[in-house]
Amino acid sequence: MTSGSPTTTGPGAGRGRLVAARLLAAPGVLVGGTVVLLLFLLAFVGPYLTHWSYTDVDYASLRQPPSAQHWFGTGGLGQDVYAQTLRGLQKSLIIGLLVALLSTVLAGLVGACAGYFGGWTDRLLIFFVDLMLVFPGFLVITIISPRLRSAGWLAFVVLLAAFNWMITARVVRSMTISLKEREFVRAAEFMGVRPLQVIWRHILPNCASYLIVDATIAVGSAVMSETALSYFGFGVKAPDVSLGTLIADDTDTAPTYPWTFYFAAGLLVLFVLAVNLVGDGLRDALDPTSEAGRRPARSARRSARRVPAPRTDSPVPTVDKATA
Q1: How many Cα neighbours within 13 Å face the side chain of 169?
Q2: Three-class DSSP category at 277
Q3: Can you say whether the dihedral through the CA atoms of 58, 59, 62, 67 is positive or negative?
Q4: Is 177 exposed, middle or buried (0-12, 13-18, 19+ CB in 10 A)?
Q5: Is the separation of the CB atoms in 180 and 115 below 8 Å?
Q6: What is the mean pLDDT of the chain?
Q7: pLDDT digits (tens, 9 = 90+) for 38-85
Q8: In the chain, pLDDT over 70 holds for what percent of residues?
Q9: CA triplet 73, 79, 80: central angle to 5 degrees?
Q10: What would the pLDDT profile of 91-100 be if each residue is shown by its tens digit?
Q11: How far apart are CA 236 and CA 319, in angstroms?
């Protein structure tokens, strides 16, 4: 290829630039993403900034307000609220990410298989999905989780993920039914590509936009579910803590000792709002039919169509002073 030949770029690079432009044009994504990043840094780096651990007890400082020694104050037994809040935030974030990942993967596989294979496979999988939707997930988890206390918090993650994927699977199934009639899927089938490879290479990548947005929002909902279950004593067990256990333990003392309650509650609200902002922005950026997503593309095209005024090299006419 000669040096003067144009450089070709694939359609994926052009779509990537368009998505990046949409994300940069959405202030909610920038604000929400920055807040989420800062919260992750606070959760995983913040504990190293203090010598207190979430299990340490300072019996000389019981329910003391924030000070230089205890940045967020102390609890009823002398626990450092800063260390406990960051430990609770860390645990809630890990649970939320794992639940969102497991539920999204399960929903994608079940929905894609049901929509692609059809027939009895579709009927059996959708019957199972409908059966799972009938069960009250919150009630089932409250009944099963005490019996899995020895398995630790990973069993709690599996329980939350098991009741958080059915609606997404139905949406992926509908998308797959439409996608399997496309030319690229038909061509892969005629070339002898195996059905599972067709699903992995062609169906799921075309559902990735929806799955990414759904997984982002699922993180916030999983954190809220974990907090609610831990609040009622069915989530993370002592001596470990989460935002839900901290909020539950200090609800009664919140009016008198607000620092024991509002730091954990404030971080929870802040994280859920930030994740929802990121999810809304991703939906607008990845959805080509979104009006908000098309706005930066239209403005870019308008700016590209603007032609600068032609420059004239003619001299400025001068006035003869003698004639004047």
Answers
A1: 25
A2: helix
A3: negative
A4: middle
A5: yes
A6: 81
A7: 999 999 999 999 889 888 888 888 888 898 888 998 988 888 999 999
A8: 81
A9: 45
A10: 989 999 999 9
A11: 89
Residue 99 to residues 124, 143, 163, Cα–Cα distance (Å): 24, 19, 10
Residue 106 has pLDDT above 90, yes or no: yes
The structure tokens listed for 125 are: 């999988």
Look-up of token digits 């004047």: 324
Residue type, 178: S
Q: What is the mean pLDDT of residues 204-232?
A: 86
Q: Which of 93-97, 103-107, 278-282 shows the lowest per-residue confidence on average (mean pLDDT)? A: 278-282
First to last CA, the chain: 65
Cross-strand bridge partners of residue 271: none
What does the alpha-carbon distance between residue 154 and residue 150 come to, in Å, rounded to a whole number? 10
Scanning the structure block, which residue is given the tokens 């399960």?
106
What does the block give as tokens for 33? 């993403």
Q: Distance from CA of residue 95 to its chain's centroid? A: 12
3-state secondary structure of 168: helix
User: Vertex 154, ends 45 and 48: CA angle to 5°?
Assistant: 15
Q: Are 264 and 312 in contact (CB under 8 A)?
A: no
- 276 burial (CB, 10 Å; 0-12 / 13-18 / 19+) is middle
Where does residue 116 rank: exposed (0-12), middle (13-18), buried (19+ CB within 10 A)? buried
Q: What phi and psi, each to the nearest 5 degrees, are found at residue 182?
A: -75, 160
